[in-house]
Structure formats: C-alpha cells, structure tokens
TrEMBL record, chains A, B:
Its cofactor is Mg(2+). Pfam families: dsrm (PF00035), Ribonucleas_3_3 (PF14622). GO terms for biological process: mRNA processing; rRNA processing; tRNA processing. Residues 172-240 form the DRBM domain. Belongs to the ribonuclease III family. This is Ribonuclease 3. It comes from Mariniflexile fucanivorans. It is found in: Cytoplasm. Homodimer. Residues 19-144 form the RNase III domain. SUPFAM superfamilies: dsRNA-binding domain-like, RNase III domain-like. One of its GO terms (cellular component) is cytoplasm. The active site is at 65, 133.
Amino acid sequence: MKNIRNILNSRFKRNGNFFMEIINILGFKPKDINFYKKAFTHRSMNIKDSKGNAINYERLEFLGDAMLSAVIASHLYLEVPSGDEGYLTKMRSKVVSREHLNELGRELNLIGLVESKIPPGQFGDNIHGNLFEALVGAIFLDRGYKYCEKFIYKRVITPYVDIETLEGKVISYKSLLIEWCQKEKRTFGYNVYEDTGNDEVRHFSVKLSIDNKVVSKARATSKKKAEEKASKRAFFVFQNKMSKML
Amino acid sequence: MKNIRNILNSRFKRNGNFFMEIINILGFKPKDINFYKKAFTHRSMNIKDSKGNAINYERLEFLGDAMLSAVIASHLYLEVPSGDEGYLTKMRSKVVSREHLNELGRELNLIGLVESKIPPGQFGDNIHGNLFEALVGAIFLDRGYKYCEKFIYKRVITPYVDIETLEGKVISYKSLLIEWCQKEKRTFGYNVYEDTGNDEVRHFSVKLSIDNKVVSKARATSKKKAEEKASKRAFFVFQNKMSKML
C-alpha cells in the first residue's frame, strides 16, 4: 500500500492543489485522498500495484454507479409515494442516464483533474460521466454510504432531480420563467455575451436578472442553451414559488 | 399514518408472533414494525392509504433491489481487487439473479408471513425473491444502509457468495467434500431420509456427518439435491480449510 501511495503522491505532486480542489467539489474533507487520486487516474497511466492489479478509475465506476442507483432509488421511493415500480425504474434511469452523468461530470470540470497520457481532447464524451461515477465510488470507500448520499443530494438531487421535469412536464424553463415573471409582475433580463475562453468551440455566457438582481449564470455552446440553463438554475432558486405554476 | 397503522395492525394481529418472526429473520430488532408489515402485504389485500396510494410490497422490491445491488457491488469490489468492471458486473448479476433471490426467500420461508387473498399455492416462483427484495427495502427504511449491509452479509454474502463458486470453479460441493475428507483422513456419512411433511411434493432431508459429528443438514426435493445442499453448507463451515483445495 505504501508503494502505491508513493506512486500516486509523486504523480499528483505537480497538481499541488488537488486536495483543495477535491474538498471544493465534495463539500467535505476526504479522510484518505488516495481514493480520489485513484478516481482521477486514467488507464493510460498504466499503473499497477505490487500484485499486478491495475490502478485506475474503471473499477470505481462500477461501485459509484451502484451507489448512485441506490441513493436515487431511495430518494424517488420517498418522494413519489404514488409511483409504482415501473414508474420508479423509469424515473431513475432518466436521472442516471449516460447523458445526464456526462453533464454532471462536465459541470464539475472533473476532466481537469485527470492524470492521463492521452490528451484531453481525445477523450470521448463519456469520460465526464465515468469520472463522476468513479468519484462517487471513491466517496463511498472513503466515507461510507451517508457521505455518498450527502454528495449526491448536493450535486444531483437538489439541483437536478425534479419530478415534473423528469416526467417531461416542463418543456422549457425559459418560458416557464417568463410566464412566472409576468404573472408576478417582476422584470427580468438575459444578458448574453460571447465567452469562448480557452475552449476550441465557441461558447456563450449568460446572466439572468430578476428585478435587476442577477439570480443565475450559465455557459454553453449556444445562446439558446445558455439561456435555458440559466433559467433552469433560476427555477431551482425559486422552486417553491414557481412550481406552483406547473 | 395512524390510520394505516391501524389497518395493518388489525390484519397482523392474528399473526401474533409476526414481530418475533421478523426479529428471528433479521437478527436484530426492528424500530418500526410497520415497514415489515408492508413488506409482507400482497397487492391482493387491496389496501390503500388516505391518499389512495396502494400499500403492498411492490415498491419496496424496487428499493430492496437497489440496496442489494449496492451492497453486493461493494463486497465484490473489495473482495476481488483483480476483477475489472465487466467481471464485477457479471459476478454481481449471478448473486442477484432471480433464481438465487428466489432461493434466498424460500430458505427463509418468507411466504409464510405474507398476508394475501390469493392462496399461497397460486403464487408464482418469483414471489420468494420479490419478498426477499421487499424485506431488504424495509430494513433500509427502518434502520438505514448499515443494517441493510449487515443483513445482506448474514443472509447472502457469508453463506452464499463465494468467488470460486461464482466463477463456476466448484462443480459439485459433494465431490469437493469427499475429496477433502479423503485427503484429511476423516470419515463422513450422508444420512438421508424421506421428510415430505406437509408439502405436496416429496421431500428428503439429509444429515451430513464428519468424524461422526453432524456438521450440516439440508432438505430438498431429491436425495441428490439435499446432499449437495448439505455439502455446500459444510463447505462454508470448513471454508478456510477446504478452499485451499481449489
């Protein structure tokens, strides 16, 4: 074990703020940072332990996926007492869809923490979701189920798991937001500007203000997407008030 | 909620020892017996809460299945450090196969606790596994993940999850046991007798002795099956010693 620690430590040394970045993502302090180092080690690094077992995040994906499924299952069970097994299964599969997991990983910019010999541009889209699952697996090993649950509530359930949305009742958050503002006689404005930064693809940022106060920000590859994302975030800020309109 | 409690209580009253039987199965005391009552209420009872939501074990199956998958995943992750994602997924699906879950439910005779308007003989085979899943779901709601894990270790992992078996390396426990006894110069004997009891189908019981001491018992619908089952149980009694032969 000491040996693996040394290998991992030397690799992550140049990434001096790895520990701080992990705390930032988790919202709590890891007990053993090595689980997280493993969660961000790509197979291309070709690291093995003394018994020849590969050290990378792939096995952690399996574990994280199982924990994610369990936490989402228990949330949906309690949240929707009227939903039968088929309904609960369908709703869960929407939350843990490949697409959604990729979005979660991308939002946290997990790819920025990966140690790999492959240039980031060559990773497929699924790496975002895979890293997210691996991170959940690492949290389980480091701190157990309760912290896993805490993290999934913070990063998945609270911001994204909304029954109306999952059921497809909300088509556009932007139109929902506009409708709500008009009804409540509030002013609103989307301030969009190009913000490509270091990305290869063109990006846009948007600030959404309600009553002249910025309530949410978002960034995406089109103006429309960025506006929708900001609206969705604002929706969760005003959730109780706005969801009465559904 | 009080209303539901009353409904469930009156139903389970005639089953006065329900609480004791549950303790016996769990190996610990439930905090709220109502979760378990729900886990043994068949949809044919047609019970609804004040909001019209059906009260039966079907939703609990969904929850229990998720918890079972999570606990087995974490066990396999830790137990087989050399297994990749594909291997872990395959091994887990063997443990949580419909067939295996039915066996687990049958062994605990969970069907004996069910409240139903359908005669037990008319239930399909899957009811055993479904009740087992529902029971795990009830444990999660009653006592949380840790107790769920504890129960699954006691009832599933310790007695049944053996990597060599899952990998199909052990073909027959009886031949393994005989080989081991011969090597260790121990005497053994299978004492088989018909033991149909109240069952409609013919049953056999067997007592397996090693060095003239009964080490395990089993009961099944054929002599061969009963012997194999008793050998499997003996295998786990002598696990450390016998597994060296694999």
